Amino acid sequence: MFDKRPLSHLAPGWQARVSSLCAQGSMRRRLQDLGVIPGAAVECLARSPLKDPCAYLIQGAVIALRNADAASILVREASPAQRQSAKKAAGRQEAGYGTL
């Protein structure tokens, strides 16, 4: 139902989960160090006026990625129910619940 697509195609405000990483060499290692690993939650926060780069929320950090680099990350978009659940969890964390 939710096919894999490049992270660069994710619209602002939409959330997804990383399904695979196609980058090679040092770029792959750098993305993994930033938390881009299979299963990681990703949200597109904003696009620059010229559409490149884009800001993504990954593992609690805001990361700007060029479209060429984001295209090497395959994601599955979250279902509407998953998006609602993630928003509720984020609201609880902002209120101080569920954090150590």
Describe this entry's structure for a reader.
There is one protein chain. By secondary structure, the protein is of the alpha+beta class. The protein is built from 3 helices and 6 strands, in the order ββαβββαβα. It has helices at residues 25-33, 67-70, 80-94; strands at residues 4-6, 15-21, 41-47, 54-58, 61-65, 73-77. The protein has a 6-stranded antiparallel beta sheet. A hairpin with a 2-residue loop joins strand 4 and strand 5. It starts with a strand and ends in a 6-residue tail after the last helix.
Number of helices: 3
Low-confidence parts, pLDDT < 50 over ≥5 residues? none
Strand/helix succession: EEHEEEHEH
Rg, Å, rounded? 14 Å
Strand order of the largest sheet: 1-6-2-3-4-5
